[in-house]
Amino acid sequence: MASSSKPASEQPKRSRSSALFVFWGLIAAVAVSGIGTLQYLGPPAVKPVTKPPAMVAIPQAPAVQHASPMQMSGAAAKAPVKAVTPGVPAASAPQNMAMGTGGTLAMGLPIPPPNPALLGPAITNPNWQIPRISPDGLAPMRAYAATAASTSGPHVAILVAGLGDDDAQSQEALTMLPAAVSFGFTPYGQHTANVAALSRASGHEIILEIPMQALHPETDNAGNEALVMAGPITLNQPMLDWNLAQIKGYAGVTDAIGASQGAGFMINPNAKAWLLQELADRGLFFIDARQTGITPYAWNRTADVVIDPVGAPQNEQGQLTSLTALAKLQGNALGILMIPTPKSIQMLQSWVQTLGAQGVTLVPVSALVLPPTAQTATTTGPP
């Protein structure tokens, strides 16, 4: 009897088909499960997009304006400046210091050349050599003062200011005026150093003019290196040092410079006190063209008559006549010729020649300077 079963060769095919069916069934189940899970969880959260932070402007440091003519190093700019104690005279300027050169220098002989012992580096710029009292106590106002005539009669002194700028006028003053006339030199002058040296060799006492802020600076410009009334010491100190370094061999300083008299600076009592103590510390006297009276700290003298040659010649002649009368009345008088013009120098020369007949003696400015607390001048200067 024939058998009804399939051949053995067909059994492996049936087994493989069953395995494939099971495999794809599992894949389908997993896919369905994943889709359900995604639907249940929902889409992933989206992070918000943040803007980059705005740029912050960095503030710029303010520009530093260096006071002309300073080219200071950092150390020099931070150099300490001593404070001024009102009412306390400078310790380095003894109040009984003798003025003039006494019997060591005859009338009209050359003023001694600049002495290295009387010079030292400025605190704001060591390259600037400025006056100082020597280690043995000699002050510039004594070393470079011209000798006054030893007479008992009235005395008059004349300061011719504004020299050194115009060479012809400076040379004319040097040629026409006697040695007893003192000369003031502007630090701005192109010919200042040369004419000052020639003047000192001819026996003229030299006085340096310090530019200072005028009372009306908008119309009266005292220059870039002028002392400023409201300026801090850190501004004014380098200005003062620069001015003091422009020439050598001078006995004192003045605020008379051209038509400007530094009124704006000098009306500030703190500014005035600082300046005068600086001068006292360096052994220099001060000639005040502003006629303001008492001057503290430094040896000083205030002008009795300020001669302004701008105008009619009779005005200058009248001022010179008033100066002579004041000398007779009070025993001495100081005049300042502010602007040396050819006519004013000639008129001054003629006036000087009349003094002897009137019993009045012409003396250098240093012969009339006063100690800080004195009210009346002496003929030969402080004892």
Please report the total strand number as a whole number.
11
Quick one: biggest sheet? 9 strands, parallel
Element order: H for helix, E for strand: HHEEHEHEHEHEHHEEEHEHE
What is the C-level CATH assignment of the domain at 131-368?
Alpha Beta
Number of helices: 10
Gap from first CA to last CA: 171 Å
Which regions contain 5 or more consecutive residues with pLDDT less than 50? Answer: 1-14, 37-106, 374-383
- The third-level CATH topology of the domain at 131-368 is TIM Barrel
Shape: globular
What is the level-2 CATH architecture name of the domain at 131-368?
A: Alpha-Beta Barrel
Would you spell out the secondary-structure blueprint of this structure?
Layout: H1 11-41, H2 74-77, E1 119-121, E2 129-131, H3 140-143, E3 155-163, H4 167-176, E4 182-185, H5 192-201, E5 206-209, H6 233-244, E6 252-254, H7 263-266, H8 269-281, E7 285-288, E8 300-302, E9 305-307, H9 313-330, E10 332-337, H10 342-355, E11 361-362
Parallel strand pairs: 3-4, 3-10, 3-11, 4-5, 5-6, 6-7, 7-8, 9-10
Antiparallel strand pairs: 1-2
Helix pairs in contact: 4-5, 4-10, 9-10
What does this structure look like?
There is one protein chain. By secondary structure, this protein is an alpha/beta fold. The chain has a domain at 131-368: Alpha-Beta Barrel (TIM Barrel). It has 10 helices and 11 strands. The protein has helices spanning 11-41, 74-77, 140-143, 167-176, 192-201, 233-244, 263-266, 269-281, 313-330, 342-355, and strands spanning 119-121, 129-131, 155-163, 182-185, 206-209, 252-254, 285-288, 300-302, 305-307, 332-337, 361-362. The strands form 2 sheets. Strands 3, 4, 5, 6, 7, 8, 9, 10 and 11 form a 9-stranded parallel sheet that branches. Strand 9 (305-307), helix 9 (313-330) and strand 10 form a beta-alpha-beta unit. Helix 4 packs parallel to helix 5 (192-201) and helix 9 (313-330) packs parallel to helix 10 (342-355). The longest helix has 31 residues, at 11-41. Mean pLDDT is 74; it is low at 1-14, 37-106 and 374-383.
